[in-house]
Design goal:
Shape: elongated
Number of helices: 20
CATH architecture of the largest domain: 3-Layer(aba) Sandwich
Largest sheet: 8 strands, mixed
Number of domains: 4
CATH topology of the largest domain: Cobalt-precorrin-4 Transmethylase, domain 1
Distance between the termini: 68 Å
Structural class: alpha/beta
Strand content: 15-25%
CATH class of the largest domain: Alpha Beta
Number of strands: 18
CATH superfamily of the largest domain: Tetrapyrrole methylase, N-terminal domain
Bound molecules: S-adenosyl-L-homocysteine
Radius of gyration: 28 Å
Amino acid sequence: MPRKPSQDPEQVGANFSRVFLVGAGPGDPDLITVKGLDLLERCDVLVYDSLVPPELIERSPAAEKHYVGKTLGGHAMPQDEITSLLVRLAKAPGPPRTIVRLKGGDPYVFGRGGEEAITCARAGIPVEVVPGVTAGIAALAYAGVPVTHRGLSKGVVLLTGHKARGGLPDLPWRGLVDSGLSLVFYMGVTTLSSIARKLILHGMDPDTPAITVQEGTLPGQRQVTGPLHAIARLVTEHGIRPPAITAVGSVAGLSPLLSRQLPRPLAGRIIVFLRAEERHYSEISQLRSAGARVLDIPGIRFLPLTDTPRITDMMRSLEASHVVLLTSSIAAEFFSSLLHRQLAGKQATNSSVAGWQPVMVPTSPSVSSVLVKHGWEVTIQAGTPGWAASLESMISSGLRKGTPVWMPRSTVADDQLPEAVRKAGFLPLPVPIYSSHPVPLSMDVRSMLVHGRVDALVFLAPSCVESVTSSMPEILKGLDTGRTIVAALGPKTRAAITRNGLSCHLVPSEYTVPALVKAILRYFEPGSS
Ligand code: SAH
């Protein structure tokens, strides 16, 4: 029999936006579902709160982001304000948009997702849920506890350890004890001693294994195991704090055998990488494998300039004998598009332009690979990175004195390179082809930086330094706490860091991302200082 639609389509506002309640998973950003990630990457509006991994927020290009979690001062937005925000967004005039309400774990497990769905449904807003991996199962799994296990536990009960207004909830304690099922408590750190007492009073063996897992599935995951009668004391002694999950039952006893044992020298470290929006560096995953939590986020966005008089002049004057000197991957990307556009126009009228290109000189292997990716031939490539070596190669390749050297670059580049090109005997022609704009950091990342909870703040470009220090000066306070080291990709970025009043603690000897990643690994490896 076909399923009856849950709502009369007549009643659902035809022009309302659709709301998706998406489960973000328990903390490890890779534990979101494929469907959830897909929605996140194409939504128009994103509403999210504190339990959601910041890495996922960065995956969403949504123009409109609403943070409804705790503020820097620790205040949370009341639930009815969150639901009315969802309704307001969905009913906003204009064409329907895709709204994602991203919630930690699974939206319907202690996340008040049910209330949000009901309010939307009653207001005639189409609402769908995308389930997530809930902390009560995942945090325990990462800590080596299967919540059900043949011969040990026939089932699992997910419980709240906390009433909305505080204190221990009314639970069927006797029934829970008699059931013999695994008991999993969410939000139960402050009430843990009362929970243990209630269970023991209702007949549970005081030696029943128990485990509490803090920040499960995150690099900062910590756990303590012990008998039920001692678990609350152990949790206090080890300074375990929310968010944490507690499991009581024989399955908790499997943790020492099954918890992950791979060596993770950077466990508990938080590293923030500030890079240009368009660039992703796969090498960063090495830090994740070593146990660090890496927030790889855009600090700067580059936008191409279009049809300025100087660009028009460059494209009109460019000849095959001219040099194009490219000092950054972004410049190579944007210049390549300009040239492709120009050639597409010419090809329409003249077939002999196929294969035409100027003398391309990238100043590093990464710039070179951008050119190759777009189909250009790298004409002169120096053996070592840096523009000084490129200039030497240009001279030794026999280029004529006075050859025009076009330098497509950023609007804020300085005169150093044009000056060096002139000294080398060529005609420098700098042309700004893109501008850079700061990208605001999400509230969670700001909060981590301000409260000094980050171990390393890594700048991949001078523009990222300027962007952060000018738009978020409060972050500098967090850097004073002593925990955070500041690292730079190379000397230019280091100069920008010190110019803005910060100390720079780490620069790799070779100015590449893989070398920087290795230097960070070495810096934080136990035993090194
Ligand atoms: N909807 C969420 C739960 C929200 S209630 C889910 O399905 O997981 C918030 C509680 O979830 C926290 O107090 C804590 O008990 C638990 N929690 C959330 N993330 C956690 C994590 N990474 N590790 C341990 N507990 C977590």
